[in-house]
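Reopening closed ticket. The problem is back. First fold of the pair:
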Amino acid sequence: MNWTQLPLGPLQTNCYILSNKTKECIVFDPGADGERLVEWLKENGLKPLAILLTHAHFDHIGAVEQVRNSFDAPVYLHKEEQDWLVDPTLNGSERFQLGKISGRPADHLLTDETSLTIGDFSFQLFHTPGHSPGSVSYFFEEGNAVFAGDTLFMGSIGRTDLQGGNHEQLLNSIHEHLLTLPEEVIVLPGHGPATTIGEEMERNPFLNGF
């Protein structure tokens, strides 16, 4: 299994492509630049099996429809944000004036699942609200990596001043779900470079003394 990080759009939101030897793949958070992303997938001969969203803020969903329509790939999203794909007010695109984003609802709503298997790809699911009410982190044990969205960054944590954000809830999510993973697990955040659980336990100033 291989993962590729593709920063997309004006906010350089990380889209991740997790692929296997047979060129099947999972697309995480296709945030923008839909034509470019679809072309990249086709050039690399990849077949998306699904689109997994860590959450539905506008900068993480801008290319969802183009990828979904191009490859007939179903979209997975937590039920707490089931209306966000269709509502520019909820997903924040109306507020930030970068173009209103709306599309079809998700094909699958995540609820209390603790695991998810799509083709050869298996994930452990953590509902990690705080940055947004439906934030989900996908732990890919086989690759020793967690797709954490905007929950945890290198040296920082997600903002909590947007729709449904809660600072205390975010810290609880990080400590209860992410920091309990092995220290060598790679954290793949929604923005910026990858890090590890161990690095953030030791050096992240937002987590010290919690």
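Second fold of the pair, where the issue appears:
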Amino acid sequence: METTEFDGRTALVTGGARGIGAAVALRLAEGGADVAFTYQHDGAAAEAVAGKISGMGRGALALRADSGDPAAIEDAVDRAAAEWGRLDVLVNNAGTYAVGPIADLGAAAFDRSVAVNVRGPYLAARAASRHMRAGGRIISIGSNVADRTTFPGHTLYALTKTALAGMTKGLARDLGPLGITVNLLHPGPTDTDANPADGPYADTVRGFTALGRYAAADEIAAVVAHLASDAASYVTGAVVHADGGFTV
């Protein structure tokens, strides 16, 4: 097997069975990493992603876990580290997308959104830091709406994704002495099952980007892979945009 950029490294991707998360898991495996990933509901999709990773000759571990459950997300990190005796990369991708009029989104929606989109990444990073050596990478997936909330109904979602910027900067300072980098990636509109490029609002959304198109999930995964690589060893506390110019 040829030597590749992530040979000998291990990764955990939360929400890795579909969309951007699946693309990230497969990209890291293509680079040589053994990859664990979490999923919540779609066992068939998780099995398919694990099969593709195994087919590359890499280790694969699918873990059912709700990122809104503190014990479940910390256990997933610990199990991933135990599987291969180390953890080098954590990608916080799992999220929930609660949108609608603010009058319709009360305490329950707020608590669930914060639990999954903010507390989950924080606890996963906290748990991962116990296993990581110098050279560890923590990357969270945010959203372009954190910097440009173009449409009504995104208050709660934008709030949670904006919180990740502060978390990223704080963790970068806390974990820098350990040689661990922490970064945040804000994707723009990306063609996935949940947000298809041929959806009912896609033409309007495309019009807000400078490139006039949606990203492929692989394009977002490529940026994650760069942040996880040795080439990004001096990048930490950064908020990186891969949004096709949505926020320019």
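Update: turned out to be a display glitch only; the data is intact. The chain has one domain: 10-242. The chain has a mean pLDDT of 96. Please close again.
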